[in-house]
Amino acid sequence: MFKRLGETASIVTIEVDGKTVRARTGDTVAAAMLAGGIDHCRTTPVSGAPRAPYCLMGVCFECLVIIDGIGSRQGCLIPVRDGMRVETQQGKREAGR
Amino acid sequence: MARTADVVVIGGGLHGCSTALHLALRGLKPILVEKDYAGRHASGVNAGGVRQLARDIAEIPLSISSMTIWEHIEELVGDDCGFASHGTVLVAESEAEFADFRARVDDLQLRGFTHEELVDRTELRRLVPAVSDHCPGGVVSRRDGAADPFRTTQAFRRRAIEKGAEVIEGVTVTGLSRIGTQWRVETSDGPIEAPKVVNAAGAWADRIASMLGEPVPLEVIAPMLMVTSRLPAFIEPVVILRGRKLSFKQVGNGTVVIGGGHRARPFRDQNRTVLDWQKLAVSAATVWELFPVMREATIVRAWAGIEARMPDDLPVVGPSSTSEGIYHQFGFSAHGFQLGPGTGAMMAELIATGATNVPIDGLGIERFAAG
Amino acid sequence: MTGPSDLSSSYDLVVIGGGPAGLAAAALAARAGVSTVLFDENPGIGGQIYRGITSTPIKNRAVLGEDYWAGASLAAEAKASGAQIVTGATVWSLDPSRQVGVSIGGEARMIQAHRVIIATGSLERPFPIPGWTLPGVMTAGAAQTALKAHGLVPEGRVLLAGSGPLLWLLAAQLLRAGTTIETILDTTPRSNWLRALPHLADFLLSPYWSKGLALLREVRAKVPVIPVQRLSAHGEGKLQHVEYQSAGKDYRRQADMLFLHQGVVPNVNLANAAGVAHRWSERQLCFEPVLDVDSGSSVSGISVAGDGAGIAGGTAAVERGRIAAIAAVRAVKPSASVPDPQSVRQRLQREELGRGFLDALYRPADMFRLPEGETIVCRCEEVMAQQIHDMAAKGCEGPNQMKAFLRCGMGPCQGRLCGLTVTELIANERHTRPADVGYYRLRPPVKPITLAELASLPISEAERKAVER
User: Fold this and answer.
1) What is the CATH number of domain B84-145+220-309?
2) Cβ within 8 Å, pair A28-C412
């Protein structure tokens, strides 16, 4: 996975699938998950295969996650906020959450 | 030397392909001419609703005859066309609307049509559990369903070819003239001669009619649709509204198609449409109110297919009123998909035998004759 | 942070994309007194090449190199120019009447633009090898973004594979940051050197020559480079090992991270959906917009600048952004003073000198562009190469029909990661050219929006009534 170069001054905490993950202010959700050792962020709606961020620039849509209850968000474009609730997205996103 | 055929069909939408297939099944030799490729426009990109519900009385017989074909579509074209029958539900949004629906269903019953059935609040909830609480009831047509429009059009095209039709794509019709008992159809790929011609040219059908000196008040429209990413199954029937424009259905793969008739700006000479997001926002707001579970669904694509609308929202089918050997089949006014299989069969019967058992009164082109 | 309520309903110029082309364009136009807004969907400006330029945690300038830091003055210039710069702003629609649909913080707005400059840059060419969807396999660009924007470096057994300048730059940057790269698997076909030779004279005159050579030396001194003719990624649920063939022999190597790259191609989605005409570039094996000398597209008032207009690199993008901006200013405010476009064009020519050599040398092998069998082509809908081959053999002539049959390109990425592969596979199967096969017709929204976002578009009561029947 990924590790941080040096220590970071400004820390926020987010929750991923109920687990606390420390992130740097300025991280995107996808970066925080990669740094936090989370090895996949969703499973596909077609075969259920696990997927992780692939491009980190908003084009591949592999980093789709549920953020604060809203599904199919591009984790690589959304900056972390303290207390943010992130869930990995399993297959077809549930309607109405 | 001009190519020859028994019938030239102009237009490779579902209607043209269906007529070509049914003509070939009757042993005739049709040549279908399509300016782009089969199903390029409305036939390939419509909402795919296979609906008898809420139709004008004039087209109900045609719709019912078509439904019988839909129910055995695989036997006809060798592909199930993605057809699934879960009914169509017209949802009443108020008591007043519900009362209107009741009157309509009663009227249909008197005329002998039993496909529309009034449902109360409980049955509506059973059919469409996700519908918002404010809806008092509705009407269901239980045999209705939905299919994959592009796949359907392609299946008809393929089977027509297998049965002896010739399909020429990327070729434009540039002129029509009478030579003795034959029609000479000028195309960008050379002339074709045939005693009979079917005008199934959709949004371009008025141009063909004009070539025959039979102008029609055709409006080019482009009804907009949008589709969501895949969602878990939560609704089976197609849902439509009357007061507000909405049609709503979930496809087998989980995506939800939202339509209902809000229109894009069409540019038919460029094969293009420009979407109107203000109107799509109204659709989004309607879905928001009717299906609260959809609020965070993601819209992945929106589009519009170019097609023809007539002033009375009824199609033009049947023989030309001025030219012997010419038949019209266009102007389906945003509800022609379900009618495709049946209208093709009816047209082939009409062309081959000179008459048809399916009543098409009130749908002829003569209703637009000047004076 | 700029929110939707801070936006005007119309602007003289809307610039889409805050990379080098967009930043240079917005700065020039705003300084000339043209009302300008720049939208970028990322949290900060800089685009991909200068990603994180205003916020990167990497303080040691040597790690990213001086070329990266050149972006700082560009960003500062744009910020000081008076252009309204809105980050976290996703443009999801652009139509020929220049209505721009944009979402900021979950709220959507339609903005009317007099002129539009599309500066949406490039994306990495699809690299469809077996296993490229496994967690642990990423693009080289992703590793660079992780480093530049977030100060993250890969750990474990790290492999790089592919071809092209960016791969070498990433390798150098990772090495400078202290990362160990086990191996670079070089997919560049040997025969490319012959193709590239005729362009060598120009290349020697370009700035790429000395920089490129230094980079290669720096990397080769520390990492073994193995030429490979086959490549696949394997693992249960995540990457565990890589298999490759080199000089006719098969190898297998344990790996935790594999970074793939075989060049970049224009990100055409927004321009395509707006109706801009594109053509196939045989030189760069991709579609690019058809443009006039001022970067104007086939749609009146819409121009395309930077790598989105055809790949020429970051420094060229700056000049191309300026050329587009000069045309926009002249159209909107003829009295304003603008730089002489001739001198800008001359600088651009110098920047573009080395391109022919790079395009020829790093032209990706057929093997890595035309996948076979069960290799996934469309990542979103999990469509395999064999399905595309079969459907094309059955008579499916184009990507739009393919879409309807197989759903390839119908997922959320809207064909960005499969479009070129599908076009080339169809052309190959049907013995025709990609130019004749064409590309997906893309539909807005070019980025998905939620129903809630769409419903948030302000609609007047009149409009609401007008659409009810």
Assistant:
1) 3.30.9.10
2) no
